[in-house]
Amino acid sequence: MRVFEAIADAVVAHGVDTVFGLLGDANMFLVADLVNRHGVRFVAARNENAAVMMADGYARTTGRCAVATVTQGPGLAVAGAALTIARQARTPLVLIAGDTPPGDPLHVQSFDQQPYALATAGRFVPVTGAGTAVRDVGLAFRAARELPGPVVLNLPIDLQEESVPAGTQAAPPVLPRPPCPLVPDPADVEALAQRLRTADRPVLLAGRGAEPAADAIRELADRSGALLATTLMAAGLFTGHPYDLGVAGGLSRPPTRRVLAGADLVVTFGAGLNRWTADHGVLFADATVVSVDVDPAAIGARWPVAAGVVGDAGETARAVSALLAPVERPYWRSPELAAELATADPFDDLYLRSTVDRIDPRAFIRICAERLPRERTTVVGVGHFGGWPNLLLDSAATDRSFVAPWEFGSIGVGLPFAVGAAVGRPDRPVVAFEGDGSLLTGLGELDTLARVGAPVLLVVLDDAAYGAEVRKLAPRGVDPDLARFPDRDLAAVARALGVPAWTVTDEAGARAAFDAVLPLTGPALLHVKVRPDVVQEKF
Q1: Cys bridge to 220: 66, 183, 317, 387, which one at CB 3.0-4.6 A?
Q2: 3-class DSSP state for residue 348?
Q3: DSSP 444-476
């Protein structure tokens, strides 16, 4: 048995049935063996960066450790942004990267892959010998699942062709250690309980890391008389609770902004608290902020906090609840507030300004709210356009149905993450929001979407510009035409690459397009030409 065959066996032994990637000299025989001998599904992307993003989207929607593969040199180099996104999101992901022969430093594709992998993914596992290859695969999977985060499994091309030494036994999968919830220090628990006893207007704010602890946080809120809120990444976590304020941050809706501005204590659970969540200090200006997180380095790293509790969100919430007597705060948890939250319409008081040839993006999102299936995966890309669906369209983080890969601020993420999400959860349609500038960085993945054939509706909100840059250049007196581009027929491009597409310029056209594409049974694209002068201040 050759090394690449032993590695294929080891990968499959870890439960892998889907691999994303792009073929090259240093991984093509491994991929062929995975497909032909093991029946693994290979999703071939058109760009290595997109392939890793697809794997990331797959992992986020399934909870499984994803696998991608790229070739040596430029194959790994192109994937740097995607690896950085996965690292910041702590996505469990193994990237099998081919490498040039160590004995050929003048190889045209040679570069030092280890420091690059460490700077992007953060973890690097080299396969250094035929006798240890299977063990190294196990170490990579274990690291990806336990950290969690991406790991580059580095595989030199010449080593792949070596024979596994006679008598080498196939190692069993290296299983990750079972998670052990981090129990908080009792003194920190008592201090947090005391803060909740003496607060007048407390809020419990949950992030994506607190999703498994939603019930415990909800119980703590009810016991302490606190209101509930989430970060954008955990949107919808407390849907149905009468005192759920929704998303906190620059994308908060008006009632949420008003209430949060009056809080005197904000306790975060598993939240990457940053300047956007605090809306640059506007929301929590008069509040004491306490952060609960399993990672002590994350507490106060991006936004100052008065105190921190190192512990699992659920363990901490339950421990604090056990120390509290039930508290009634009728002035804070009032029937009037519950009624306002229950009936709030994000589209109230909006002055919509569509023209004959360009639709107000808010008018389009209102139609989305009416027509899109509730059971869906929502993916929102990065850019000015992303403010509209995040602010106005209800999405649920529960059941891994909301993906906003904003961790690194990289554009061009919407389409590849949508493909990965659709492959991971074929039982649910995917609706992805992307901008024209973002889509044009990776048009080739429309071909991937067509080949995969998954039910993905890609909504392209096209303002013929890099909208965020336009809005930042003009106030400084710099000509914003630097960030504007000619109109392009993106629907025609999509159709040329195999994706059915419709162009939307007004509300009637939007409704007709939804009539044509729903229910969603395969890929489709709506090229929505939006007014460029409708500004979302917070995005």
Answers
A1: 317
A2: coil
A3: HHHHHHHHH---EEEEEEE-SB-HHHHHHHGGG
Show the tokens assigned to 18.
């889907």
Q: Report residue 426 as tokens.
A: 């074929």
Pull the structure tokens for residue 248. 């906190």
Q: What's the CA dihedral at 114, 115, 117, 123 to 10 degrees?
A: 80
Instruction: Answer whether residue 249 shows pLDDT above 90.
Output: no
The C-alpha torsion from 377 through 383 and 386 to 391, rounded to 10°, is: 140
400: left (phi over 0), alpha (psi -120 to 50) or beta: left
- Amino acid sitting at position 398: T
Residue 5, both tokens: 């065959």
Question: What pLDDT does residue 178 have?
Answer: 65
Distance of CA 154 to the CA centre of its chain: 25
| pTM, to two decimals | 0.93
Residues with Cβ within 8 Å of 78's Cβ and at least 6 positions away in sequence, in order, are: 47, 48, 49, 70
- How many Å apart are CA 463 and CA 539, to the nearest integer? 15
What per-residue confidence (pLDDT) applies to 176? 63
**Confidence check: pLDDT of 434 > 80:** yes
Q: Cβ distance 53 to 432 under 8 Å? A: no
Q: pLDDT tens digits for 472-499?
A: 998 899 999 999 999 999 999 999 999 9
Q: How far is CA 331 from CA 193, 328, 337, in A?
A: 20, 9, 9
**Cα–Cα distance, 462 to 121 (Å, whole number):** 32
pLDDT category at 170 given cuts 50, 70, 90 is: low
DSSP state of 506: S
How far, in Å, CA of 457 to CA of 72, rounded?
33
Measured CA to CA, the distance from residue 392 to residue 370 in angstroms comes to 12
Q: How far is the C-alpha of 128 from the C-alpha of 60, rounded, in Å? A: 31
